Structures are given as C-alpha cells and as structure tokens.
Task: inverse folding
C-alpha cells in the first residue's frame, strides 16, 4: 500500500505539478494501482509495473516499462537512452499538450496493460553481448578481490558498470572510472547506487 504523503509530496514537487496530476488521473482511470518506486509515481497491473511518471528539466513524461513491445504506428514513443531495451516514454512540455494527447496516452496505457495480461516479456539481448573494455579486463586480471566481487554482482549491476566504463571515450578516463568504482563494486553496489 502506498503512503498518501509520499504521493502528495511527489505531486507537489516544484516542476510539472499540473502535468503530473493529469497523467496520474489518466493512469488511475485506466485501472492501474498507484505506488511510489524509485522516488517516482509508478503504476502497476496485477502487481507488475506498467507505467511511471517522470518530471525532468525540460519535459515531463509517462514511461511504459515494456514500451518496446507496444505497437507505435506513429513512432511517438521515445527510447530514454541508447542502452534502454524495454522502456519507452511519451514526453510533454505542457498541460495543454497532455490534454491534446489524452486519447493517445490512454491507447498506449491499454496496450501496456494488455502486454501484462498476455504475459509478454522483453528479450534483453544486450545483456549477453557486452564488450568489456580492455581497462576493465586488465583490472580484473590484476585484482582478485575485484574479480570476485564483480562476479558476485547481479547481471544488471555488471551490465551497468560495463556500460559506464565503456561510455568513456579515452582509456585514461575508463581506467580512472574503474579505479574510483572499486570500493562500490566490492560493496556489491551498481554504478548508480550510493
């Protein structure tokens, strides 16, 4: 059960208040259950995450956890990042834009719910096709404690670290990132965890 104060705190954040409330109304009207996850308003069907509301600097968005599986005949769903395999989002810059797009938002929400009802799953193909940067391979070869800790990480945490290290363009930057990450990896944490 979601704490109402958590929901109200999120709805009353400085930016995108009216837009968040409108997106929330649409999602709740679709029969989804509201909860707070990852510091965001999240909506589930039969205990499976379906949608989430984001408030960003230049836009707000509704994200669909299995958005890559949804039929998107107009190509309006946006991939949040180059490594995102499942999530797709609809971005909005005003309340008017959300109101004008309400039918579309409802259509995608129903498609997302149907994907859950049908038991559809996203195939995460990239997780098996990671290219470990040479600097990470060298660090793992040179440091048995780091190697053991890295093996113990969940596949998602391993992937996050590999992508974080690989995104650096220069070898020195990759090596510095790996050195800086050592204590977090040994503590069993992912790159975006504190």
Result:
């Amino acid at each position: 059960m979601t704490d109402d104060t958590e929901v109200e705190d999120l709805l009353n954040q400085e930016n995108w208040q009216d837009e968040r409330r409108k997106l929330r109304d649409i999602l709740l009207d679709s029969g989804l259950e509201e909860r707070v996850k990852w510091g965001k308003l999240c909506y589930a069907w039969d205990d499976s995450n379906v949608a989430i509301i984001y408030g960003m600097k230049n836009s707000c968005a509704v994200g669909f956890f299995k958005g890559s599986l949804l039929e998107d005949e107009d190509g309006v769903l946006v991939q949040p990042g180059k490594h995102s395999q499942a999530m797709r989002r609809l971005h909005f810059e005003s309340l008017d834009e959300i109101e004008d797009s309400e039918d579309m938002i409802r259509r995608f929400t129903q498609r997302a719910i149907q994907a859950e009802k049908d038991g559809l799953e996203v195939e995460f193909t990239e997780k098996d096709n990671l290219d470990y940067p040479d600097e990470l391979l060298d660090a793992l070869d040179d440091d048995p404690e780091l190697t053991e800790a890295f093996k113990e990480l969940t596949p998602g945490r391993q992937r996050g670290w590999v992508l974080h290290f690989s995104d650096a363009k220069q070898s020195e930057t990759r090596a510095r990132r790996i050195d800086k990450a050592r204590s977090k990896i040994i503590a069993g944490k992912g790159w975006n965890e504190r």
Notes: The first strand starts at residue 33 and ends at 37. The domain at 4-117 is CATH 3.90.1150.200 (Aspartate Aminotransferase, domain 1).
